[in-house]
Specification:
single chain; Protein Transport Mog1p, Chain A; seven-stranded antiparallel sheet; 6 helices; disordered N terminus
Length: 226
């Protein structure tokens, strides 16, 4: 993650589409918009894909310490806030190194070894000083499409199952993309949760064993909230 460079953020000013410079919200269909969406999607997917090996090791380790308490998470200035249930161990992600943090990337991983479930939380700054509205359909659709593209390339036996468009009570738009895949020779369910507001975008991934769809759905519901 730390070595990730988004092409859009390195475009000379003369090449930045006028629509990006002239709009606060994201509603364009230009190359510039697509580059932004792909960059955010790639950054989030890269973390999710790279973290699987570490996840397998943590999930296989015996749990001897006391059960971790519930932990609060706040993203996008508090517009996407939830409580991770008790039993999840918070961990750092090597991909989110000093260079990535300097670029505005935030990332945490929450692992429940007993239930073999992982929650990956990432938040990043949108390239080119672009600002998104709280329910920016074009931005969210673009990021969701980009994530599906990258997951289909990075996950074995990837299959998109469904996609939902949700608007929380506070007006924040959310995209929920449910998929199945094979990771470390195990069938899994993975849900990507996408939101954006202002200059920031948040992408979260919930990964569970395919045998536990109800538990997967319950954690996704907790993360998205109302």
């Amino acid at each position: 993650m730390g070595t990730f460079n988004c092409p859009a953020t390195h475009m000379p000013q003369a090449q930045v589409p006028r629509s990006i410079n002239s709009q606060k919200g994201i509603s364009m269909r230009s190359f510039g918009f697509k580059a932004i969406a792909v960059c955010v999607a790639l950054a989030a997917s890269q973390v999710a894909i790279n973290v699987q090996a570490a996840t397998k090791v943590e999930a296989a380790a015996p749990v001897k310490a006391p059960v971790p308490a519930a932990q609060k998470v706040s993203l996008l200035g508090g517009k996407l806030a939830f409580t991770v249930p008790a039993g999840y161990v918070q961990g750092e992600m090597p991909e989110v190194d000093a260079k990535a943090k300097a670029q505005g990337v935030y990332g945490k991983m929450y692992t429940n070894a007993t239930e073999k479930r992982v929650l990956i939380v990432t938040e990043t700054t949108l390239p080119m000083s672009v600002e998104a509205s709280d329910n920016d359909s074009a931005m969210l659709d673009g990021i969701a499409a980009g994530i599906v593209d990258h997951q289909s390339a990075g996950y074995k036996d990837f299959k998109k199952l469904s996609e939902r468009k949700i608007v929380k009570k506070n007006g924040l738009g959310v995209r929920q993309v449910d998929s199945s895949a094979t990771m470390s020779d195990a069938k899994v369910l993975t849900t990507s949760i996408i939101a954006a507001s202002g200059t920031r975008a948040a992408v979260l991934n919930v990964v569970s064993n395919a045998k536990n769809p109800k538990e997967q759905a319950a954690l996704v519901k907790t993360v998205i909230g109302e």
